[in-house]
Specification:
The chain is an alpha+beta fold. The chain has a domain of about 60 residues: Ubiquitin-like (UB roll) (Roll), CATH 3.10.20.520. The chain is built from three helices and three strands.
């Protein structure tokens, strides 16, 4: 293994999220390794928005993401079922309010 390969292997892993021109939400599009946040952002732009598909990019170090697992699905989300007041069926949403 040469020095260049060894260096890139040690770089942290980043998750990349892109918001498209027509979308409202950022969508996970992939991962990359980079030496720092700025490099991750630049590489994400070069890799994932080559055809002007995006208007915004987020890069997040993978180690900073905490997520639930599939095995936790039922017990983790079960407490929300008893909070019916949180469901939008109790609210009248005006027609002129976009994106709801």
């Amino acid at each position: 293994m040469n020095d260049t390969t060894r260096t890139t292997v040690d770089w942290p892993l980043y998750e990349v999220f892109v918001r498209g021109k027509r979308g409202l939400n950022h969508v996970h599009v992939g991962s990359l390794h980079a030496a720092d946040d700025r490099m991750a952002l630049t590489h994400a732009r070069d890799l994932y928005t080559r055809r002007n598909e995006g208007v915004s990019i987020w890069v997040v170090r993978s180690r900073h993401i905490t997520a639930s697992t599939r095995d936790e699905k039922d017990p983790f989300f079960a407490p929300n079922a008893d909070k019916a007041y949180r469901h939008p069926t109790f609210y009248d949403i005006p027609d002129d309010v976009p994106h709801i």
